[in-house]
Specification:
The complex is a heterodimer.
Chain A: E1 2-4, E2 17-26, E3 36-44, E4 48-52, H1 59-66, E5 74-79, E6 82-83, H2 88-94, E7 95-98, H3 110-120, H4 125-138, H5 154-165, E8 172-176, H6 184-199, E9 203-207, H7 211-217, E10 220-225, E11 228-234, H8 235-242, E12 246-251, H9 257-262, E13 269-270, E14 275-279, H10 284-296, E15 301-306, H11 311-327, E16 335-337
Parallel strand pairs in A: 4-9, 4-10, 7-8, 8-9
Antiparallel strand pairs in A: 1-16, 2-3, 2-5, 5-6, 10-11, 12-14, 12-15, 13-14
Helix pairs in contact in A: 5-6
Chain B: H1 2-19, H2 21-41, H3 43-46, E1 54-60, H4 65-76, E2 80-84, H5 91-99, E3 105-109, H6 113-119, E4 129-133, H7 139-166, H8 172-175, H9 182-185, E5 187-191, H10 204-218, H11 221-234, H12 236-241, H13 247-279, H14 291-315, H15 319-336, H16 348-354, H17 358-370, H18 376-405
Parallel strand pairs in B: 1-2, 1-3, 4-5
Antiparallel strand pairs in B: 3-4
Helix pairs in contact in B: 2-15, 4-7, 6-7, 10-13, 10-17, 11-14, 11-15, 13-14, 14-15, 14-17, 14-18, 17-18
The chains are: A alpha/beta, B alpha/beta.
Chain lengths: 342, 406
């Protein structure tokens, strides 16, 4: 059974909003549908705000509107109390974009890139050296500064990409998949740098397809699909409200058909031969029964994980629910299969 | 199984190549364009038998039997067609006409030509013929034409001699030329681009430096469009646009270095023409015009090339496409515009088409400055056309880019 719930997609803000979006609509020339349709969002100051959605959902369009690359066709955007169009110069001074691509010059060294972009941001004089030193330290680029960026590894390029975004000491930083394709060490460096920024009061707008990363660093989350906001909540509320606890088991041997049949009430889902996930609507009572059935069938369990909510599952359910609504001709809305609360 | 895989590979590759319209253009459209352009442009070089001849302007101030015979022999040579003017123009007007695209030569026959060519061996009245050579006429063609004239003059003289002998004139010996080489002096050659105070003999360097200078300047299209596309593809442009830099500064910051690169190209090529070519045994390039006029031409040429580069960067999706479009486009503009083949050897229709190529405007402007030593009035139409082309291309590129963003 699927229970659908209409939600107010404006985030409940504990803090004053840094970004306030009302009725925002944008449609590309000759496009059959609007890329963004009547979006309302509020991003609290000094928060890390995650933007999730499938490819083509409208995230990039929203980012390009927020960064002033496009102008809203309908609705309004206010940033730090300023109007995006009228006060564009001030807004651009206090914000920075870290694009998904390596948005710098590969034939230049890291230092040359930083110096060039600092000039573009208007950072000069004694401030220049101070800001550059800070960004280099935060992104740990000291050892490679005088090498051409084309010789950097993927992780170093990502770090330089981020460092450039920090040059103007932004109050708002837009990050478009800042860790895509990097090794664990560079990812750690980038995430640590983002946490430091957050502690320093910088508002981070973050898009990524790495759910674990989003879950780990974002305070607020908004899910966008087909130009509509499907959900917008603080992360904890989002996780608590949207799912049942699940039981993840790793078995020593493949379960028999009888066992899978016996687990039928808990909707067993295989992620490979030995890894199984089961829904536990009745909590620990269900866990006990599932394990008892397995034991009775003589299956050895290697690993048990219970009570860990995975953002990815919630996200996929939301998107699937949205698609289902669209197929039935219903407006897209927040939809939680077997949701226990509204 | 292997056959299926092979068939799948062939199908895949066929689809890829069919969808790569830039590649198809390179493979098919470019050779087609070249065949058409070069065949038409060189038609007169290879098709004399088909009736294509170089045009010769004739000014007959004598109207004698001998002068008419001379012009008839030029006409009958099979390589030249004589055009007679109804009225007798001044020398300046003749030069002006030869500077146009139509005539390769002008032959100005002096009064009393008929009488002097056969009876005045110790002539001191000046040349019998003034020959004006167009700036872009090749040395080879000029030599052939002058040989034809000398042969005809010799024939006129021989006919006079034979007629005198047959008449049994006793004073014949006194009237015979002391040195038959006098015929050499009976013909004076002028070059249509000679400046008022300098005698410049046409040379390959005088012709080729302006041509290849214009060609090279337009090749700025390739590196400039490539850097722009790379900025767009890598998101650098996005990042820059999200700052307070602004589009004018962004554009100017991009174009100014390339503008100076163009100026360096022009300066380098002129220096090579002036110093390196003579050093390796060639003729020295003579700069007859002022440096101010050179600067105007060079700046307007650069503006046109930069505008074209922006336009190509906007319409191309990848650097490969831009390189292809820029490279082949330049070669075609050069072929049409008289860079590869001088315009005077092209048939009239091709000569008209040549005027559409910005490279032709550049070439004419530089020829006016470097060879003809002309001033602002003479270069203004070419510099203006180049500047207008460049400005229009930049505006169009901006409009297309905005449409793409929207």
């Amino acid at each position: 059974m699927t229970m659908s719930v209409r939600r107010d997609t404006t985030a409940p803000t504990r803090l004053a909003p840094m970004i306030s979006i009302e009725g925002l609509t944008y449609r590309y020339r000759n496009a059959p549908a609007a890329a963004l349709e009547s979006i309302d969002l509020q991003v609290p100051a000094a928060s890390t705000f995650g933007l999730l959605g499938p490819n083509g959902a409208g995230k990039t369009t929203l980012l390009s509107l927020l960064t002033g690359l496009r102008e809203p066709q309908q609705g309004s955007i206010r940033i730090a109390g300023l109007d995006l169009i009228r006060d564009a110069v001030q807004i651009k001074q206090m914000s920075a974009l870290v694009p998904q691509d390596f948005a710098f010059y590969l034939p230049l060294t890291g230092r040359e890139n930083l110096r060039f972009f600092a000039s573009v941001y208007g950072v000069t004089g004694p401030q220049l050296a101070r800001r550059m030193d800070h960004c280099i330290a935060v992104c740990r680029l000291e050892e490679v500064l005088d090498r051409r960026a084309e010789h950097y590894s993927g992780g170093l390029k990502r770090r330089l990409n981020l460092a450039i975004g920090l040059l103007n000491a932004p109050r708002i930083l837009y990050l478009d998949e800042p860790t895509v394709g990097v090794d664990a060490r560079s990812r750690q460096t980038i995430l640590a740098a983002l946490n430091d920024l957050k502690s320093a009061g910088v508002t981070l707008i973050y898009t990524s397809h790495y759910m674990e990363e989003v879950q780990a660093i974002c305070d607020y989350l908004s899910i966008i699909d087909h130009g509509c906001v499907l959900a917008c909540d603080p992360m904890d509320a989002f996780l608590a409200r949207a799912t049942h606890p699940e039981l993840h088991l790793i078995l020593a041997n493949a379960p028999s058909d009888d066992l899978v049949h016996a687990w039928g009430a808990w909707q067993p889902r295989a992620a490979g031969t030995y890894s199984w996930t089961l829904t536990t609507a009745r909590g620990l009572e269900d866990v006990r029964e599932i394990l008892a059935v397995a034991q009775a069938q003589g299956v050895t369990i290697v690993q048990i994980q219970y009570g860990v909510t995975r953002l990815e599952q919630i996200y996929l359910r939301l998107i699937e629910g949205s698609e289902s609504d669209a197929r039935q001709g219903m407006p897209r809305r927040l939809s939680f299969p077997e949701s226990t609360s509204a | 199984m292997h056959a299926r895989a092979l068939a799948a590979c062939i199908r895949k590759e066929t689809l890829l190549v069919c969808r790569d319209w830039h590649g198809l253009l390179l493979l098919f459209a470019m050779p087609l364009a070249f065949i058409l352009i070069m065949s038409l442009a060189l038609q007169e070089q290879f098709a004399a038998r088909a009736g294509f001849k170089l045009q010769v302007l004739a000014i007959d101030r004598d109207q004698s039997e001998s002068s008419r015979a001379l012009l008839a022999e030029i006409d009958a040579s099979g390589a030249f067609t004589v055009h007679r003017l109804p009225s007798l123009p001044e020398a300046e007007r003749i030069v002006e006409l030869v500077r146009g695209d139509r005539y390769a030569f002008a032959v100005d026959i002096s009064p009393k030509f008929g009488e002097r060519v056969s009876h005045s061996p110790n002539d001191t009245e000046g040349p019998l013929l003034h020959v004006h050579v167009a700036a872009d006429t090749s040395k080879q063609t000029e030599a052939v034409f002058l040989a034809l004239l000398r042969e005809s003059l010799g024939r006129r003289w021989t006919e006079g001699l034979v007629a005198t002998l047959l008449a049994g004139n006793p004073t014949l010996a006194g009237s015979l030329p002391a040195d038959p080489q006098w015929l050499q002096h009976g013909l004076r050659v002028h070059y249509a681009y000679r400046s008022a105070d300098k005698e410049v003999i046409p040379s390959s360097v005088q012709q080729s430096v302006p041509a290849w200078l214009v060609f090279a300047a337009f090749f700025i299209v390739v590196p400039l469009s490539n850097t722009l596309i790379r900025e767009r593809q890598q998101g650098t442009l996005l990042r820059l646009r999200s700052t307070n830099l602004g589009s004018p500064a962004l554009l100017a910051g991009k174009l100014i270095p390339y503008f100076f690169l163009n100026q360096a190209q022009v300066a380098l090529m002129l220096l090579v023409g002036c110093f390196v070519v003579p050093w390796v045994g060639g003729d020295r390039l003579q700069i007859n015009g002022s440096f101010a006029m050179l600067a105007i031409m060079s700046a307007s040429l650069s503006l046109a090339a930069l505008g074209l580069a922006l336009l190509i960067a906007v319409v191309s999706k990848t650097t490969e496409q831009a390189t292809l479009l820029g490279g082949t486009g330049n070669i075609i503009l050069a072929a049409v515009g008289g860079i590869m083949v001088p315009r005077f050897v092209m048939p009239p229709a091709m000569q008209s088409l040549a005027h559409l190529s910005p490279m032709s405007w550049g070439l004419e402007g530089f020829l006016n400055v470097l060879l003809r030593g002309e001033g602002f009035v003479a270069i203004a139409p070419y510099a203006g056309a180049l500047a207008a082309f460049g400005t229009l291309a930049i505006v169009l590129a901006g409009w297309l880019q905005q449409r793409r963003i929207d």
